[in-house]
C-alpha cells in the first residue's frame, strides 16, 4: 500500500481543530490542519467568553484563538489555508481533494464547526452585510446611538444583544416564544438592561429598507396573527446554527440536520474518521465541549494508527 502523505489531517481550525492538533503533535503524528478562511472559526466573532476554565476575568474569542494558535505552532504543526472540496473514504487510505491537489492520510478529524442559520424571509439576503448581520462584535460599532432588532432567544442571541447595548440606543429582542431559552444568568442581565425591549411571541416576516439601508422590520405575533412594523436601523439574527458539512456529501453518516453522527469516542460511520466540536451531533456546543471532543478524537486517531 502506498504511504500516506500524513498520519492525520484535521479539517477546521476552531477550538476543536486546534486542540486536536496539539494532542496529535504530542503523540508525534505527522499532522496537517486545513482551514478554509482563518484559524478560529465562530469563536473569532465571540465578544467575551467567561465560561472557559482558566480565565477568571473572561477572555475575548479573538485572544483565546490567538493563544491556541500560538500553542499549535509551538509544536511545529502546519496550518494551511485551503478548502476541502470532497472526500473519498472508499479505501483504508483516505483521500481529500483540495483546491490545488489531492492528499492522502491514515486518519481524519472533521472539526469544521457550524454557521449561523438564516431566517429565509424577504429582504434578509438583500440587506445581509448592509444592515442585516449575525455578528455583533463585527458590526455593533456601525449602529452607535441607533435602534436595532435582534432575533432569537438562546444564549447567543441574549449575550450578543447585551453586547449591542454598549453601542446602540435600543435593542428590540424578538422571540417566537413567551420565555427565553438562554441560561438564567444571561436572562437576568437582559431583563435588567433598560436598553433591551423583548418582543414576545413574535417572528420577523420581512426586512424592509432602501438603497440607504434597513429602515424597518415587519413582525407577526404567532398567537394573535397581528402584524406590525418596528422602525430599526439594523437587524441581527441568532436563530441557531447549521453544520459546515456541505463537502461531506455521502462520505459518512449525518443526522437529519446534517450534523455528523459520532459516538463517545468521536468515531464516525467510517473507521479512522472522527468528528469533534460543533459539527457533530452533540447536546452542547461550547468551547469547553469542543476541546474535550477533540482531545478524545486525537487520542483515538493515534490508537487507530498504532493498530493499523
Keywords:
308 residues, seven-stranded mixed β-sheet, five-stranded parallel β-sheet, 7 helices
Q: Would you kindly provide a written description of the structure presented here, covering whatever features stand out?
A:
With 308 residues, the chain is α/β, with parallel strands linked by helices. Strands 1, 2, 3, 4, 5, 6 and 17 form a seven-stranded mixed sheet that branches. α1 runs parallel beside α2 and α1 packs parallel to α7 (287-306). The protein is built from seven helices and 17 strands.
Sequence stretches where pLDDT stays below 50 over 5 or more residues:
none
**Main sheet: strands, sense, barrel:** 7 strands, mixed
> How many beta-strand segments?
17
Anisotropy-based shape? elongated
Q: What's the pLDDT, averaged over the residues?
A: 95
